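Can you please make up a whole protein chain along with its backbone structure tokens because I've never seen that pairing?
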Amino acid sequence: MEKDTDKEINIRVLEENEYQEAMELAYRVFNEFEAVNYSKEGISEFAATIADKQFLSSLKIYGAFKKKELLGLIATRDNGSHIALFFVEGNYHRQVIGRNLFEYMLDKTNAEKITVNSSVFAREIYRRFGFRQFEDEKEVNGLRFIPMVFYRKELKNKVQNELLRRDTE
């Protein structure tokens, strides 16, 4: 099932033959925005991870397209309870593509709790989506990350409170 998030952007599950293009996008965006925060070991570890066929086979990857051009992706594992990858082309940052990918993924999973090991760069983005940091920053194999969690129930409560606030105005 596809979702039109605006007149030009289409979000759908990627086919396995599209994974290489998606990982090229992930690597490009990682290098542009995140690599500065990592050691050579961390950059190599990231490259090895996104080239690992076993890792990729454990993911459900959603892509945002403008016509046939892939603009962004979000990948989950463990039945949608963990975000493993989340990247949007730099030219399309702050154009709601990331939010639309996240919301589309939320529609496709029943997970009540979703975790992510956020990069330093993406921490504020996840906070805006409703994630909370639950542990201090960590580093494993040169990859720095902040463990964060999102509870669907908290989102429902936030939406209900906002609707109540509007009704009382």
